[in-house]
Amino acid sequence: MSQGDLTDAKWRVLKDLLPIEPENRRRGRPPEQNRSIINGILWRLRCGAPWRDVSPKYGSWNTIYRRFRRWSEAGVWETVGVTLAEIIGQWPLQHR
Q1: How far is residue 52 from each of residues 41, 43, 59, 85, measured CA to CA in Å?
Q2: In this protein, which residues make up the domain named Insertion element IS402-like (predicted)?
């Protein structure tokens, strides 16, 4: 795990907020690799680098980009943001 990658605890919360990819998909990365794809997306957003510069350790830059775009168009990021804000809002103040 690299600095900035999702911890196991963060991944447990986030993975259930992501859409389930259809099982009959023949192309692209399987859904169980979403954690690596999310780490690639987060790296790119933190660094501001071009998509093509995402490290191959996260997978194909094109796969990461396409998953990001598909989820953006489907409103996944808005749902994730609202849900995470609700979860954090329920935490005691000392944990925020």
Answers
A1: 12, 12, 11, 31
A2: 6-80
Tokens read off for 84 = 């995470």
Query: Which amino acid makes up residue 74?
Result: A
- 12-51: pLDDT as tens digits: 888 988 887 654 455 655 666 899 999 999 999 999 999 9
Residue 3 and residue 42: Cα distance in Å, rounded?
Answer: 11
Find out whether 45 and 72 touch, Cβ atoms under 8 Å.
no
Both structure tokens of 92 = 């005691």
> In the chain, which residue ranges form alpha helices assigned H by DSSP?
8-15, 34-47, 61-73, 76-89
Distances (CA, A) of 46 to 20, 38, 60, 74, 87: 25, 12, 18, 22, 23
Q: Tokens standing for 26?
A: 């023949």
